[in-house]
Amino acid sequence: MAHTRRRQSGARSASRGRRTAAPREPQPGPTLELEVERIAHGGVSVARHEGRVVFVADAIPGERVLAQVVDAGHDRFWRADTLSVLRASTDRREHVWPEASVDREPAQRPGGAEFGHIRLARQRELKAEVLRDALARMGGVEWDVEVLPVRPELAPGVSVDDGTGWRTRVRLHVDAEGAVGPYAARSHTVVHVTSLPLAVPELAELAPLDERFPGARAIDLVAPSSGAAAVVVEGEGRTPRGEPPVIEEVVGDRTFRLDRDGFWQVHRGAAATLTQAVQELVDPDRFDPRAANQDLYGGVGLLAAAVGDRFGAGVRITTVEADVRATEHAGANLAEWVGARAVTARVDRYLDTLLAGSASERAGLHDATIVIDPPRSGAGRDVVDRLAELAPRQLVYVACDPVALARDVGFLAERGYRLEALRAFDLFPNTHHVEAVARLTAIV
Ligand SMILES: C[S@@+](CC[C@H](N)C(=O)[O-])C[C@H]1O[C@@H](n2cnc3c(N)ncnc32)[C@H](O)[C@@H]1O
């Protein structure tokens, strides 16, 4: 495709001579019959056409499908959508969200349920395969991964049969005419749907799918574990001034307060699942309650509380988070631990201040356990290098992206840390996402 470069006076000097590439338009290609070979990261499967990789959506490894190439603009791979299934896998089932099924026009299928046509147990095997492959390729470790379902007692009301009814946060979008819906898969086009099966039942009922919101940008649906569910309309003149409403989330015997629009784990049972996983994965023989323990990317203090509950009232732990409101809540949520602190900071800068500490401060860090729960992009080289320099006894890494985790496991291996334990959980049934909790320890 020919790109036209727009000339704007002053644009070149403003960008100091750098040219910014215009977003690439996808180039539609042919309709193909494809043998689907294996799963890839991102919820698509790998097929081949004349030697070229084709990433195909809405298929299952082992199937033969008729697929429309939606982007033939790359030399090395194309992207395609399944139009119909010519030979179905025994793992195929009715899609849990009829509107996302292959029976609908690809451009009209909502995103966010890209595994909904696959038996639940097989979804977990595919997620395990992606994590195992990523760890082998990027992390340099062979690890036999099993992805476990959320335990039903931790997620009351969530269907264990088909993986529906778990989402406590849903963002819908509003189009130019004010119509509401999710984005179509792999696009920013709002599509109309009549149901939200992945949402917890109270949100599925509340969702204003047939209403119009002219001028609004998005509709956020929030169902805290305690108190009423809410529909929040975002857009010009609609965001209320002043402090955002505060909600409560209950995990076991604990209540966490947070802003209604603040970060919280999305699956109804996720916070309890991760609490248990972190408590189990911290090696008690390596844990020193008086060391300078850390909970990095700490949100409102969920995982610092998990460590505190596991090791008792005397635990020292600092939770570090970039969002000021979240750290204010974390300070209050962790008030009962005299040794707990909540710090507002970017993790990389915070680690720089730790690295500049005195010899006795550095010794306290050397004995520390550091829990780290970064956003989807992972910790990355800069943070990993700083962590390795602090040389804590153990790291407990909570990850929502297998490739970012595997990359960071690889970086940590270069810096003398090895993967010692790993658990993976299906905190996002019917999507391709998977959560993992890993313990890495210093090789001595
Ligand atoms: C995956 S959430 C985890 C939150 C918390 N551990 C929990 O389970 O509720 C990641 C958090 O990291 C915060 N964050 C993102 N980038 C950050 C950075 N560079 N430094 C500090 N916090 C950051 C986000 O605001 C978010 O609260």
TrEMBL record:
One Pfam family named in its UniProt record: tRNA_U5-meth_tr
**InterPro entries in the cross-refs:** NA-bd_OB-fold, SAM-dependent_MTases_sf, TRAM_dom, U5_MeTrfase_fam
The TRAM domain, residue ranges: 25-84
Give the Gene Ontology MF terms in alphabetical order. Answer: rRNA (uridine-C5-)-methyltransferase activity
UniProt-annotated catalytic positions:
C400 (nucleophile)
Name the UniProt record assigns to this protein: Class I SAM-dependent RNA methyltransferase
Which biological process annotations from GO are given for this protein?
Answer: rRNA base methylation
Family from the record: Belongs to the class I-like SAM-binding methyltransferase superfamily. RNA M5U methyltransferase family.
Q: Where does S-adenosyl-L-methionine bind?
A: Q265, Y297, E321, D373
**What organism, scientifically named, is this protein from?**
Agromyces tardus
Q: Where is the composition biased (Basic residues)?
A: 1-21
- Chain segments carrying region Disordered: 1-31
